[in-house]
Amino acid sequence: MGTGKRGLIATAVAVVCAVTVLAAPGTAFANPTPSPTPSAGPALAPAKDLEAVRKKLDKLYRAAARATDEYNAAEEKADKQSTEVVELAKKIVKGQEKLRKLKDRAGAAAAAQYRGGGLPPEAHLVLSDDPQDFLDGAGRVREGHHATKGLLGELTRTQEDLEQYAKDASAQLKKLEAGRKAKAAAQKKIEKQIAQAEKLESALQKEEQERLAELEKEAANKAQTAWLDSGILDEINGKASDQGKKAVKYATAQIGKPYQWGAEGPRTYDCSGLTSQAWISAGRGIPRTSQEQWKQLRHIDVQDMRPGDLIIYFGDASHVAMYIGDGAIVHAPRPGRTVTIAGAGSMPILGVVRPDAGTGAN
């Protein structure tokens, strides 16, 4: 066995030992057969060790999925806060313009009063030759006083509004900065988990990687078979709503496109990016992350689900797929995979949610 290939096996063993306890020291990776001659090719890791690798990869990618939800949630909040800051800035600009015009009006009123000499009404009565002229003038003075008082009140309110807008904008900017930090922290988590998973996979030989892929399929098929054996599919006969049909059509049209964390299409998707965009295409906006989809959308019993409904997986709601009928889902699985069709019971189901309120197809 060449030293380079022995190095690959040694690296794979070292990585697995570093991330999980597989068995007692000295026996976990023992070769069950005599050492091959150099012409026999490199020894492959025992099946039980590859199964341990599969479980560890699943754990790493699930951790990455949770971090992706954190990232997407932080991004969504940041977008919302950015919009609010922009709206507040527009209000401040409008308020400043309004304040300027009010000050101009107040200045004009003050100048007019100055030109009138600022004499009290009694003086105008003494100086007036016609009492009726005085009474008419007094009426205009009262009207002027009311107008001035209203102008000053509007000035005060506008200044108070501007101060409040400034405070709100400052608070939103602080939230925005906190959101950006949360987003950056989530991104680090994602990259760390994916890097560990990729290192673990790359340390395996080609034959081992192929066997690992087979083990993943076998585990999914086993879970799907158990789910179907429960007889649940006999109870699921709901028909898609019109919007549900559109969502399914969109989601299935993305089959074969790569998974990319944080992506919402059109070339790549993560799990909730696929489901949210599918429903947006059907005319129904839904939350961006799988966890918020689980929290905010209407819960449906599994036996009542219909095509277009979303199945939420794992206890932490870290994965979501779209039910397309006949016990199948379409989903974006994980890094290194593409949008694909799988069994609805191939992963632990947390529950089902329905984005639309329609009662069924026509």
Describe this structure in words.
This protein is an alpha+beta fold. Helices cover 60% and strands 8% of the residues. It contains 8 helices and 6 strands, in the order ααααααααββββββ. Strands 1-6-2-3-4-5 form a 6-stranded antiparallel sheet. A hairpin with a 2-residue loop joins strand 3 and strand 4. Helix 2 packs across helix 5. The protein is elongated and about 110 Å long. The two termini are 66 Å apart.
Summed up:
Helices cover 60% and strands 8% of the residues.
SSE inventory with pairings:
Blueprint: H1 3-19, H2 47-115, H3 121-127, H4 131-202, H5 206-229, H6 242-253, H7 271-281, H8 290-296, E1 298-300, E2 310-313, E3 319-325, E4 328-331, E5 340-343, E6 349-354
Antiparallel strand pairs: 1-6, 2-3, 2-6, 3-4, 4-5
Helix pairs in contact: 2-4, 2-5, 6-7
- Overall, the morphology is elongated
Largest sheet: 6 strands, antiparallel
Number of β-strand runs: 6
Counting DSSP H or I runs of 4 or more residues, the number of helices is 8
Distance between the termini: 66 Å
Range of helix content? 55-70%
> How many whole angstroms does the radius of gyration measure?
35 Å
Question: Helices and strands: which structural class?
Answer: alpha+beta
Q: Provide the β-strand percentage band.
A: 5-15%
Any low-confidence stretches, pLDDT <50, length ≥5?
Answer: 1-42
User: What is the strand arrangement across the widest sheet?
Assistant: 1-6-2-3-4-5
Residue-averaged pLDDT = 77
Order of helices and strands: HHHHHHHHEEEEEE
